[in-house]
Design goal:
Blueprint: H1 2-6, H2 11-18, H3 22-31, H4 57-73, H5 81-90, H6 99-109, H7 130-133, E1 139-149, E2 155-163, E3 169-174, H8 179-193, E4 198-201, H9 205-208, H10 219-226, E5 230-233, H11 243-257, H12 265-282, H13 284-289, E6 311-317, E7 324-326, E8 329-331, E9 341-347, E10 352-357, E11 368-373
Parallel strand pairs: 1-4, 4-5, 5-6
Antiparallel strand pairs: 1-2, 2-3, 6-9, 7-8, 9-10, 10-11
Helix pairs in contact: 2-3, 4-5, 5-6, 11-12
């Protein structure tokens, strides 16, 4: 190997030729530097030090005896490294091992109670909706970024969106994000890129509808049902479900809002549009590989009499009595699944609510827990219009 390197061959090429690691070639060249090859000791040398400092057998035996005594006679029952070190310190010993040394002794004997946290594979994207997890439908998440204030101007709210499979991002700076502006922004986004299979958001009244009327159906829900885009509502105070939209908001704030000084909302809107166009160009391969979207007719406009198609999906954590109220309907049951995640599908056409069990560890197993008839007052669909 040294001969080939001295003749001009690269060290990496020599490593590939002899099927060894690059550091092996580097150590050989360094060892032979400035010497003739017949005078170089080419025998392998161990990398460990010639001398090691090992804890004396007497100290190991002392620590083990102290642990057994603590376990058998002390009322507290602490047998960890700190308790052993504290007990040894109280005794008149000429040499006392450190806490870390005692910990290594316990680990070597295999008597540590603590276990390492197992690392499991993450669930697939959109694991809580089977068609999204299988890659048959696209899930688009939307959220509102508040607290953005222009220099010397009014506060600005930004409606942001991102698709789960394609990573298609969107942002609409507005003076105030309302249910009407949210609906118009989604129509413009879907007219340009196509209709996703589902649209996810939190329980913001601008997306869900007014909460003072439990059975109210907001504009965004009616828009999704009219276009067969299933609304999905993430559970409150649960991590992970809105992680995709949170991950899309952070780059926008760093690359657009914090990077430039914006004098007016039009300036912010222009820079945001340029950033989104650049992102779409860089992610065009991922966008093309995402599940296909249905085209939105050019002349389509929302109408009060549009038929509703598809279910409304609620992700909830159950209590002792069930998932709780859904659109004014008290959904009880599921005693075998208390304090756990469920997916509730409110099907308007069939007239029932289906509750499915959810587990991150077994994302593909979502058994049906129960079904309940959907009993809403006749005026429930008319509220919030």
């Amino acid at each position: 190997m040294v001969v080939l390197v001295r003749r001009g061959m690269s060290r990496r090429a020599v490593a590939r030729r002899f099927r060894v690691r690059l550091p092996t070639v580097q150590r050989g060249v360094k060892r032979a530097a400035g010497h003739r090859l017949d005078r170089v000791d080419g025998r392998g040398q161990a990398s460990r030090p010639h001398r090691t400092r090992r804890t004396a057998a007497s100290l190991e035996a002392l620590g083990w005896q102290v642990r057994q005594a603590l376990q058998a006679h002390r009322d507290v029952g602490e047998v960890g490294a700190v308790a052993i070190h504290r007990e040894v310190t109280t005794r008149s010993c000429s040499s006392r091992p450190a806490v870390r040394t005692i910990g290594r002794l316990l680990a070597r004997r295999g008597v540590l109670d603590a276990r390492r946290r197992p690392r499991r594979r993450p669930p697939p994207r959109g694991w809580y909706v089977p068609m999204v997890a299988a890659g048959d439908a696209e899930l688009e998440s939307v959220a509102v970024v508040a607290g953005v204030v222009l220099d010397g101007g009014p506060p600005v709210e930004v409606l942001t969106g991102i698709s789960r499979h394609g990573g298609l991002v969107a942002a609409w700076p507005r003076t105030a994000v309302t249910a009407h502006t949210t609906r118009d922004a989604l129509i413009a986004q879907w007219r340009a890129w196509g209709l996703p299979g589902l649209a996810q958001c939190d329980h913001d009244p601008r997306c869900h509808g007014p909460h003072q009327h439990p059975a109210a159906v907001g504009r965004v829900i009616r828009l999704g049902l009219a276009l067969a885009v299933g609304p999905v509502f993430a559970p409150a105070r649960e991590t992970g479900f809105q992680a995709a939209i949170a991950g899309g908001n952070a780059p926008w704030q760093a690359k657009v809002w914090e990077r430039f000084h914006h004098d007016a909302r039009a300036d912010l809107h222009s820079r945001s549009a340029r950033d989104l166009a650049a992102h779409h160009r860089s992610a065009r391969s991922r966008i093309a590989a995402a599940p296909p979207r249905r085209p939105l007719p050019t002349r389509w406009r929302p109408h009060r009499e549009d038929p509703w198609r598809g279910p409304i999906v609620y992700l909830r954590r159950t209590t002792e009595h069930g998932p709780g109220p859904l659109l004014g309907h008290t959904c009880t049951g599921a005693p075998r699944w208390p304090h756990r995640l469920v997916r509730c599908e409110v099907d308007w056409e069939a007239g029932f609510i289906a509750v499915y069990a959810l587990r991150r560890r077994e994302a593909r197993q979502q058994p049906l827990l129960r079904t309940a008839p959907l009993m809403l007052p006749p005026s429930a669909a008319a509220r919030g219009r």
